[in-house]
Amino acid sequence: MKVIIIGGGIVGLATALRLLERFPATHLLVLEKEDGPGRHQSGHNSGVLHCGLYYKPGSKKARMAVEGIRRMTEFCRQHNIPYELCGKTVVATEEEELPRLNDLFERGTANGLEGLELLGPEQIREYEPHAAGIRGIRVPQEGIVDYPAVTQAMAAEIRGRGGELRFSSEVIGLKNGNGWNVATKSGDYSGDFLINCAGLHCDRLSRKAGNRDATKIVPFRGEYYKLKPERQHLVRNLIYPVPDPKFPFLGVHFTRLIHGGVEAGPNAVLAFAREGYRHRDISLRDSIETATYRGFWKFLTRYPSMCWGEFRRSLSKTLFCRSLQRLVPELTMDDLVAGGAGVRAQALSPSGELLQDFYFVRQPGALHVLNAPSPGATASLSIADEVIDLARDAFPD
Fold it and tell me: Which of 225, 285, 336, 397 shows its CA 20 to 30 Å from the CA of 265?
């Protein structure tokens, strides 16, 4: 059995690794358009290990985050990759947020999280002395990790198990006849089964493969600031707001990084390119594809205030700082310096709904991962087994 995986991010690499572990006789090829692993979502996030607080009980995200963080930390221990279960504090700063905070606590409990605490103002300050909040939740199982190091370790282990990785190999054509013929910019390849883990481009690859699923990736850029070194004492570990359950975005927050420093953000603003990490990054093709998708306009019509607020905050450091001050009032604009940015591959339905859960589609001879944003990195090893199980009949014992 020859299997081709498209996408060398953390989900594609985890799938390749688990496939070789479960079916060692598989001839496996990973195709990645960049010159190394994890160059996009996997390497442009804040490195948080999500343990399953936010996700609807019974959903794929809930199940795979709870299981995934255990498996990810075990992988890190085996490969000496830095990680830390430092804990997170979620704070409500207004009375109207309290019902949502209680719902979060119930979700976390239903998902099997251990050691959750409901906090009052004084207890919040025991964990985060500079945080504001009238109530909070302490989540001890949350953590931080070096995801680029994880992708490097996965790539090395895939090679060690006989798998092949081809970088700088952007897929430009797919044909399914007697097996798959895959044309790339580095050459042509053939395989019996195709697994699409192409992240920001997964919907395009899905359509190239003949799948007619109508969801589309709409890229949202998340922009970060960093705290100046002399002000990093304002944040001990992770401080999060109470999110709006209608959206898959968690709101601007503070994250201590595994190799030092504190990030603040991200927002969630529409990007004008699927790899648009800067305001000036504009792709005509990507922009037209988004603008001509009816689901995008239905989304804008349904959530105009959220979209406009995120856009304004993207352009205004003052507004960005003001959002952060709700969590840490002592923060000032002078404490913030420009940080990095990531682009989230968020699937949007034709009805204008942001897909909240992981989403997989099977077709003859192929399986497509069409929505695997946060907590996709944490859950990647669990996602891998889900993908393999969905395609189990294709892999002989």
Answer: 285
